[in-house]
Amino acid sequence: MAFLSDTLSRVKPSPTIAVTTKAAELKAEGRDVIGLGAGEPDFDTPQNIKDAAKAAIDAGKTKYTAVDGIPELKKAICAKFKRDNGLDYSPAQVTIGTGGKQVLYNALMATLNAGDEVVIPAPYWVSYPDMVLLAGGEPVIAEATAETAYKLTPEALEGAITPKTKWLIFNSPSNPTGAGYTWDELKALTDVLMRHPHVWVMSDDMYEHLVYDDFKFCTPAQVEPGLYERTLTVNGVSKAYAMTGWRIGYAAGPVEVIKAMGKIQSQSTSNPCSVSQWAAVEALNGPQDYIAENNKTFQRRRDLVVDMLNAAEGIVCPVPEGAFYVYPSIAGCIGKTSAGGAKIVDDEAFATALLEETGVAVVFGAAFGTSPCFRVSYATSDEALREACTRIQKFCAGLS
Fold it and tell me: Is residue 259 situated within a structural domain?
């Protein structure tokens, strides 16, 4: 009898965490490494949020809270959905977890039965398929190609839906591509969903506020009110408020699903960190002006990275609408050999050789379900990005 669960054979460790860990190991060995794998802002948490956390500690707000969050934070979340998205939710329709990942996982655990299918557009965040598998479901990958700017088409969505489909996981702006859906593009998808009333929508809006140029964010239940009763809208404070380590995610949706998610959480982690919840109240209710300021920095970095990568031989890098990632194609590099003698047979081989020969850590595209590509996080300094892209250019120029 095997000691470890058979369920573990259905999943793999997170490739993004693996890349970050490998880069840290090389740094510890004294190597000059530039890590472009981590998906977190390099900005500090705003001072007003830190002050709110300190005040919560001083006030003794360090005890257990309600399993799925304090009333004050639920109220702030309801106000946020109304203010930013035009969506009306009551506190009973809101759940709060230890990061957006736990919220997504709770929803899948609370709703999936063996054989249930979940449509996941590719490229996808690395954790979506594995969370579906852990919950006993079956991921169905609907590919979005470079020709459609890595956005799912209505035809691809229609083709992926079967009588067994329970959820569509939707992410805009996207991790890993940064692609954002316009109102009309999203409406075309919601029109498909309206023809399939058994399919629910899990909308991961974590990068909602990180958008550039003239792009306007929208979310499925906002675009199509007819989907309101079968949409779980997920968000959090990690990205927009530079609070990745605080671990606060939240969701709003039908009361039945919210209660079921709370039941899962009550037997797993129980409540999110009390101090982090009070900090999140301030994040959502307090000043929002620094988001626009941070976005100016992100947009400058995006433009720098896109320009420099498009100047590299064999690389084509689209301009993303949001998030802090770019997802360039390396189709022009496949089949070549690096200056260090590595055969570039796929994007994983490219990323491995790039790290070993130049010290630049990126995440290979196969981890996100679409090859041959790689993901760059530009949530780091201009200087580091410029140096990293210079090294990538030299690496590509050395391919033969």
Answer: yes
Closest CA to 96 of 276, 283, 323, 229: 276
Claim to verify: residue 11 and residue 96 sit in the same structural domain:
no
Domain carrying residue 307: 6-44+290-395
Judged on CB neighbours under 10 Å (0-12, 13-18, 19+), 325 is buried
The answer to whether residue 114 is domain-embedded is yes
How many other CB atoms sit within 10 Å of the CB of residue 287? 11
Higher pLDDT, 27 or 157: 157
pLDDT digits (tens, 9 = 90+) for 326-356: 999 999 999 999 999 999 999 999 999 999 9
In this structure, what is the dihedral angle of CA atoms 198, 192, 253, 11, given to the nearest 10 degrees?
Answer: 70
Q: Say which CATH number the domain at 219 has.
A: 3.40.640.10
Please give the structure tokens belonging to residue 54.
């300190």
Asked whether residue 233 falls in the same domain as residue 123, the answer is yes
Cα–Cα distance for residue pair 240/243, rounded to 1 Å = 8
Angle, CA 368 vertex, CA 367 and CA 371 arms, to 5°: 85
Structure token pair of residue 306: 């896109």
Based on the fold, state whether residues 79 and 188 are members of the same structural domain.
Answer: yes
Number of domains in the chain: 2
Q: Output the six-digit token pair for 52.
A: 């709110």
Domain boundary among 235, 258, 285: 285
Token digits for 397? 């120029």
User: Same domain for 106 and 248?
Assistant: yes
Q: Which of 16, 82, 85, 46 is nearest to 237 (CA)?
A: 46
Report helix, strand or coil for 133: helix
Q: Residues of the chain with pLDDT > 90: what percent?
A: 92
Beta bridge partners of 141: 120
Q: Evaluate whether 306 touches 317 at the Cβ level (below 8 Å).
A: yes
pLDDT recorded at residue 12 = 80
Q: How far apart are CA 53 and CA 128, in angstroms?
A: 31
Q: Which of 285, 311, 343 is the last residue of a domain?
A: 285
| Residue-wise pLDDT tens digits, 108-159 | 999 999 999 999 999 999 999 999 999 999 999 999 999 999 999 999 999 9
**C-alpha dist (Å) from residue 72 to 77, 78, 235, 239:** 9, 10, 17, 21
Are residues 158 and 73 both part of a single domain?
yes
pLDDT value for 264: 98
Q: Where are the beta strands (DSSP E) in 144-244?
A: 165-171, 200-204, 231-236
Which CATH number belongs to the domain containing residue 310 in this structure?
3.90.1150.10
